[in-house]
Each structure stands twice: as C-alpha cells, then as structure tokens.
Write a structure and sequence with these properties.
With about 725 residues, this protein is α+β, with helices and mostly antiparallel strands. It folds into 2 domains: about 15-180 and about 230-245, no CATH class; about 370-720, 2-enoyl-CoA Hydratase, Chain A, domain 1 (Alpha-Beta Complex), CATH 3.90.226. The protein is about 40% helix and about 15% strand. The protein is built from 20 helices and 23 strands. The strands form 6 sheets. Strands 4, 5, 6, 7, 8 and 9 form a 6-stranded antiparallel β-sheet that branches. The chain has a 6-stranded mixed β-sheet with strand order 11-12-13-17-18-21, with helices on both faces. Strands 2, 15, 16, 19 and 20 form a 5-stranded antiparallel β-sheet that branches. Helix 1 runs parallel beside helix 9 and helix 5 crosses helix 6. The longest helix has about 30 residues, at about 150-180. It is globular and about 75 Å long.
Length: about 725
C-alpha cells in the first residue's frame, strides 16, 4: 500500500495532515515508528541531546541533501516553503506527523518530471561544443536556483556535460580499438575483456546514441522515485533525523534491518566491498580482502572512494542506482555465486564525475574470517652496506571467531595469527617489523587490545567512554611476543580498531607511525537496537560510546597523526570522518597512568630527515608527488570546461593519471611478479632499516600463546 502525501505546488496551498490521506492502520503504523525513533534515539545516543530547533533545521537539511545532493532539482521557492516550520519538525515527529516527508518527496517527483521534458527539448536543440563555457558540478553548498531561467541554464550545461562525456568516451574507445591497444576509457568497459557476453555488452553500448543514454538514465531515476515504497520514504526521513546526532546513526526499516543482519553473518554472496551512501551513489568505504573486488587485479579494479552509480546483471543493460536507498542498491549488487555483475563507477580520483569506469566482477561467497594476516621476510641494506632482515605483516581486519572463542581451543583470530607470525619471524632472526594497517577499517575491539599486547608489557590500551562512565581496557598479559624495532603503516582508510592499535603503540613509544597526515578519525562505536521484538518497526543504529587514547585524547575526528608523513592518494581526497556531515567533535578525558616502553620520539627527527633526503633524490617519488598534486587539483575543481577539444585533452590526462596510479599505488598482490612498486611501503621499510641500525638489537623471547580462557571476559564488541 502506498502512502499518499499532499503535493506541494508553487502556489500557496493548504497543508493537510497525513490522516486525511491514509487508512487509519497505515497512518498509525508509521506514526508509531516516528514517535518511537524520536523518543529512543536521542536517549540512547552518547550525547543524550534533547531535540530542539537547531536539530530540526539540521534534519531538514539532511533530508533535502539525501534527495537533491547537488541542489539541481528543487527551486529556491520550494526550499522556502519547506522551511516554513523547520524549527518544530521534532515536535511533529513526536506527534507522529510525517506529512512533510511525503510533501517534499512528491515535489521532487514533479520537478524530475519537469526536467525530463526539458531534457527532451535541450537534446533536440543540440549543443555547440566550440563555445568556451564551464559547468559548475560542485554544487552541494550552492544556493538552489532562484527562478526557472536560472534552473534551465543549469540543466542545459548539466546535460551538455553528460553528452560531452559520452562523446569523448566513444572517441577514446574508437582510438583504442584502432590501435589495438588495451585502454581504460571513460564511460566504457575494459577493452581487454574478450568474452562473448562482454562483447555483446560493448556492442550494445557502442551503438546507443548519447541521447538514448541520457534519456534512459533520467527515465530510470523517475521510475525509482515512482516505485519507492512507504518504508523507503520513511527511512530516508527518519535517517535524516538520526544523522543530526552524528553521521553513523541511522534508522533502518524492517527490510533494511534484515539486510543488515545478513551482512553481519559469517558470509556474503556479492562483490566483497563495504558501502555507504554519499551524494546519491553507493560509495566504496573499503574492499574486503579475499572477496571478488579484493582479488581483482585489473587496472579498473574498485578502490576506496569510488562511487557506484549503475549496476548491470551479466549482459543486461545497467540500471542506475542513483538516489536509491543503500539496502536496495546492495540487493542489486548481490546475486548468485558465479554470476557476473557489471558496475558503472565514478573513480575516486575524479570526483567531478567527468569520467566513469566499468568494473566487471564474478560474485562469490566472501568468508569474512578469511581476511587473515599475511607476512613475508626481506633482506634490506643500509647506506653503509649493513644488511638486516625485515618482516612485513599485513593485517586487513581485526577478525575473530566470536563463537569459537568460547568453545573451540583453536579458534581463529587476528591476534592469534599475528602471534604465530611473530614466533616464525623470531626463529627466522628478523631484526625489524612493519605492521601494515593500511585499508584496515576495524573489527573486533577485543582483538585490537590483544594484538597491542603482543608488543607491550601489561598495561592500559584504550579508554571507552559511555554515557555515565569511562572504562579502561587493558592488556593483562605481561609477556611480549616481539620487543624489537617496529613501524606501523596507516592511511586515511585505517579506522576504529586500527586507530586504537596505532594510538596505543605511539603513546607507549613502542612504534614509529608512518603514513597519511592522519588516519580516518572514527573514534565511535555504534549499537543496533530493535524498536520492537518482532521487527515490525525496524531498528536504530546509535552511537553508544567513544574511544580515547590512554594519553586522554580521542581518536574521533583527529584520528592518529603519524610521526613521519608519507601521503597516499587518499590524503589528497575528501576522505575520512572530517568529510562527513555532523561528525562528533574531538574531546578529551583524564589520561591514565602507564609506563612508556621507550622514548622513541627522540629518534623520529633523524629518521624523518633521512627519509626526506632519500625521497628528494628519487625520481619515482618526484613523479609520485606530481601524481598526488594532480589528483588534489581535480578534487579541488568546482567547474569543468564544456569545450570539446579541451575535454579530449583532459580525458587523455586522466587516463595517464590512472596509468601512473596503477604503477605507483599499493593494493597489489604479493604473488604478482609484475606488481607496481608500493612506494610508501618501500620507504617505510627503509625507515625501519635506519631505526634498526641505530638501536641496540634485543633478541625477543618466544611467547607462549594465551589459552582461550585467558582472553578478557568482555562482551562481544566491534570497533568498525
């Protein structure tokens, strides 16, 4: 049954409550959800913020952003009308009144219908690509169009930009085909694929005109709006309320709750990527090691920060998922194991959306417990010719078999696997270790504490603040698995549990932290709470606690700042907690007493100086720096040219940028003999070698692996 909401038009109108349009039982159901959410969520949230006028205004802003993120559909007059009661929306929710949600949604549908008609008109008129004009694509903070003339001009340029993008894609595809050189081109699939189905897809897309592609894209969006059910509209509106408290809070409808439960189980059938909604698309937060996306080594592979905008099944036409609720997009991305999914993706390196790439993956079961730690040992020489054995441990997640912890003596966990690796490295006479936590988005809080304990004596590891108190989570095991020189690698995607480990090892003076200018900055914990026993009302995801370093500062927002900064591409993108709306602010608690392992800070300046001198003399790092500068320049751009020849040159530059990125950025397999150089890891190993050379080597004592009963008896917790 559909909710029927009053339609807002440009003339003054009488706003009628929901009760006049709904059967009583339907109205009562959604009103009950609204009243429950507005009562429970603020009370359960760490801040216990009382809903007020400011929160109501923020709620409306969140809802409008979810529906019209680049401020292209609504007019300024629409927005003024929507804001008429913006200070009291929390009171309307308390009364179970959801009328504004439907009013705004129905207005959006009317505006989209209008734009569909305008698109037909402007496509019929054609474009002059010799005119030197620009399109302002970065509009999420711009004012809405003041009148129809301004609105039409915006949309003329918007459609011209899309048309131009398609023309250039076809042109570059033709050039690539004529030279028989495999190339990754904007809006075109990877030409190196040669299967019959892919050829059919390529041929069909190649024969479609730009007009057909553009019309289909916006027609699909109209269908999405028309097909949206009551749960979808209510979820968007109540999620807008939830995210006034912080960006990780949410309301999940009963259907979304079921999907969330599936994701929390041990296996998924899909592509192996963690997604979140952003700017109307499904943004890649992280790629799950061992999954189809993680195992993909093509130039076009998915990377954190990429945005999925369309999904195709095998050789079927792609379906736009722009503005879809995330749970519906995920359902489309998932499918039977062994089936092919074709994703249209805006690459993270081009936030303007002027280029897209096609990513083709074979769905497979993703066993989350298979994200195991990996290691290798290498010999490295210092400038004076001394050789040292260096161990590298890559930890993609803080995984643990929570059920096995209780019942199975050989249960699998990150800390156990790393402990085993450390024993092997001890027997192999390793003299220094790199712990790589890049792209590690978190996991088990218990595992973060236990893993930190492998490198320190017993002592506090992290502080956890809940509403009423601050608790200390300690490492109670006095044994040390490894007490030699240690470097920890991080980047902007190192989050939550990774930040706990990096912060503790930095505070103890135990390790030199190397990487991006800071880590992700997610220092909060979310809890999913059902609103009723039978999942008829859905659930809320609410922030229940914050992490703090033992030195007293939070990891929230600021993250962990490395001792030596060697930036990755993520460091020049809008990536991290500080790029999200309404993030919780950084704060402090009283620090706790602990005994530093050593004063490693005094060794950092000479290590940094040597590193900077090396990089200054290395041509690869000069090229790498240029690469990051070009990515940053594209990220900072707010307008893009609409001149055909200029855009062709830009497209060529973007392809060159992608080629350089594939040669220089990490994320490749250790087993690939032709893998590109991981320059950040290379320099981290050199820094570690310098550290080994200036320290007195201490042979680590072998560690006795703790029995399962020795693990702290904490409740199951995740730092994700």
């Amino acid at each position: 049954m559909k909710l029927t909401f009053p339609l807002m038009i440009s003339l003054p109108l009488l706003v009628v409550g929901v009760a006049g349009f709904l059967p009583h039982e339907t109205e009562s159901h959604y009103a009950k959800i609204a009243r429950t959410v507005v009562a429970e969520l603020p009370m359960q949230h760490l801040s216990r913020r009382t809903p007020d006028a400011a929160l109501s205004q923020s709620m409306l802003d969140n809802y409008l952003s979810a529906l019209d993120y680049d401020r292209a559909y609504f007019l300024a007059t629409d927005i003024a009308h929507f804001r008429r009661n913006q200070d009291t929306l929390h009171e309307e929710l308390k009364a179970g009144n959801l009328a504004l949600a439907g009013e705004i949604y129905n207005t959006l549908k009317e505006r989209v219908r209008d734009r569909l008609a305008f698109i037909d008109t402007v496509l019929a008129q054609g474009f002059d690509f010799t005119i030197d004009e620009t399109y302002r694509w970065k509009r999420k903070d711009d004012p809405w169009c003041a009148n129809v003339q301004e609105w039409n001009e915006l949309w003329r340029k918007r459609i011209k930009n899309e048309y131009l993008r398609i023309l250039i894609a076809k042109s570059m595809e033709a050039e690539s085909t004529s030279t028989n050189t495999p190339a990754i081109t904007p809006d075109a699939p990877d030409s190196t694929n040669t299967t019959k189905d892919i050829d059919l897809t390529l041929e069909r897309e190649k024969n479609r005109s730009p007009e057909e592609t553009i019309r289909d894209r916006y027609t699909q969006y109209m269908h999405v709006l028309e097909d949206s059910d009551d749960d979808s509209i209510v979820q968007k509106y109540l999620s807008a309320f939830a995210r006034t408290l912080d960006p990780h809070c949410d309301y999940m409808s009963p259907a979304a709750t079921e999907d969330f439960d599936i994701e929390m189980k041990l296996s998924l059938v899909g592509i192996g990527a963690i997604l979140r909604p952003e700017d109307g698309a499904a943004k890649i937060v992280s790629v799950v090691p061992g999954g189809p996306a993680g195992e993909d080594k093509s130039d076009n592979r998915l990377r954190p920060g990429d945005k999925i905008i369309a999904v195709g099944q095998d050789n079927e036409p792609a379906v736009s998922i722009l503005h879809w609720p995330l749970y519906r997009a995920v359902r489309l991305i998932r499918g039977a194991a062994g089936s092919r999914v074709v994703l249209t993706v805006i690459p993270a390196t081009d936030p303007t959306g002027s280029t897209t790439k096609i990513v083709e993956l074979i769905r497979a079961e993703v066993k989350l417990e298979e994200r195991a730690a990996k290691s290798r040992i290498e010999a490295h020489k210092t400038a004076d010719g001394r050789e040292f054995r260096i161990g590298v441990i890559v930890l993609p997640a803080f995984y643990a078999d929570m059920k096995g912890r209780r019942y199975a003596p050989d249960y699998k966990s990150a800390s156990r696997d790393v402990a085993t690796i450390l024993r092997t490295m001890h027997s192999e006479k390793v003299q220094g270790i790199v712990l790589d936590l890049r792209n590690n988005g978190g996991g088990s809080l218990i595992e973060a504490v236990l893993l930190t304990g492998l490198f320190i004596d017993s002592g506090p590891v992290v502080l956890v603040k809940e509403q009423e108190n601050v608790s200390i989570l300690p490492d109670n095991d006095p044994t040390i698995a490894y007490d030699g020189p240690l470097v920890v690698l991080v980047n902007r995607t190192s989050a939550s549990a990774s930040e706990i480990v990096a912060a503790a090892l930095q505070d103890y003076g135990r390790a030199v932290i190397i990487g991006d200018s800071k880590t992700h900055g997610k220092g909060s914990v979310q809890t999913v709470l059902p609103l009723d026993r039978n999942n008829t009302l859905g659930s809320i995801k609410v922030t229940s606690s914050l992490f703090y370093r033992i030195s007293g500062g939070s990891t929230q927002l600021k993250g962990v700042e490395p001792d030596i900064v060697i930036p990755s591409a993520f460091d020049v993108m809008e990536f991290g907690e500080d790029s999200l709306p309404n993030p919780l602010q950084w704060s402090t608690v009283r620090p706790v007493m602990f005994s530093p392992f050593e004063d490693i800070a005094k060794l950092v300046p000479p290590l940094r100086e040597k590193s900077e001198a090396r990089r200054a003399q290395d041509e690869r790092y000069t090229a790498y720096r240029d690469l990051l500068g070009r990515i940053k320049a594209m990220t900072d751009e707010e307008e893009i040219g609409l001149h055909l020849e200029q855009r062709k040159e830009r497209a060529k530059t973007e392809k060159e940028l992608l080629d350089v990125q594939n040669r220089m950025i990490e994320e490749t397999s250790e087993d690939d003999e032709n893998k590109p150089a991981d320059l950040v890891e290379e320099e981290a190993i050199r820094i570690l070698t310098d550290l080994v050379a200036i320290k007195i080597p201490i042979d680590p004592e072998p560690v006795k692996e703790p029995e399962p009963t020795e693990a702290p008896e904490w409740k199951s917790a995740h730092a994700e």
